[in-house]
Amino acid sequence: MKATISSALRSLGLLHISDRIFYLYQRSKNKKNNTEFELANPEVKLPPDYMMFESYGLNYSKYYNEGKKTAQWILDIVKPYIKFENKKILDWGCGPARVVRHMPTLLGNTNQVFGTDYNPKTIQWCSQFIKSVEFSKNELDPPTVYEDETFDMIYGISIFTHLSEEKNIAWYEELIRVANVGAVLFLTTQGDAYLEKMTEKEKEIYNKGEIVERGKVVEGHRVYSTFHPPVYMRNLFEKHAKVLKHIPGVKKEWGIEQDIWVLKKEF
């Protein structure tokens, strides 16, 4: 039912309006807890409300504390494959620094941390308030500003999920370009666990091994949604890298996990 309603809103061009209403609801719902967080943590720089909402909802405590947990979660998964000494790490699609702001502390000062995003307001805010990370702006289409073979690790959390098939392919090629030989990539996609959210027509496409796109909204925005059959992504990834680990997402009490892909650029 939710998938059908979402499809109807897209067709009518009303999805951004419904998203705005949901934002206002979230701001009202979280006002008390957010005020308490600000008073208890005056040293924590927080992005503007809608910037935060676009990235991760509108709960200040979850933005900050869950961001730190996510950063540690990423490092725990990749640590069997990389030794973090004098490494360069890129957060691709960093948003308002929910995760990347914690990386310098968790990694230690022998490593360099970078973040890139297509939203100019986001990058302006990050550059002003998160001084331990070096930020740059990219466009919705590649390339980034970085030179070939710059990074030893690249991660992108729920970025492919808001891009078209064409941009999925183009951005993967770009990530491979800026990754060193031997670099580790950590990427997430919406896989089989999301079948329950799809319409019957979408399931037919997905089960053929084809990407499903929910467009008719601004690409790159949180309401643009893409679903990725694992067989499709494996074929794409293995053009330039070895798949070290694929962890299929599952349904949790809080929602649905995305698939995790850990890759190594070998050539």
Question: Please, could you describe this protein's structure?
Answer:
The chain has one domain (76-265): Rossmann fold. The protein has a seven-stranded mixed sheet with strand order 3-2-1-4-5-11-8, sandwiched between helices. The relative contact order is 0.12. It has helices at 2-11, 15-29, 31-40, 49-56, 60-78, 103-107, 120-129, 165-178, 200-207, 230-237, and strands spanning 88-92, 112-117, 134-137, 151-156, 179-189, 212-214, 225-227, 241-247, 251-252, 255-256, 259-265. With 267 residues, it is α/β, with parallel strands linked by helices.
Largest beta sheet, briefly? 7 strands, mixed
Strand order of the largest sheet: 3-2-1-4-5-11-8
Q: Provide the CATH architecture.
A: 3-Layer(aba) Sandwich
Strand elements, count: 11
Strand % is 15-25%
Q: What number of domains?
A: 1
Structural class by secondary-structure content: alpha/beta
Query: How many angstroms does the end-to-end distance come to?
Result: 45 Å
CA radius of gyration: 18 Å
Average pLDDT number: 93
Low-confidence parts? none
Fraction in helix: 40-55%
At CATH level 3, the topology is Rossmann fold
CATH homologous superfamily (4th level) name: Vaccinia Virus protein VP39
Please state the overall shape, judged from the principal axes of the Cα atoms.
globular
SS summary, helix count: 10
- H/E series, N to C? HHHHHEHEHEEHEHEEHEEEE
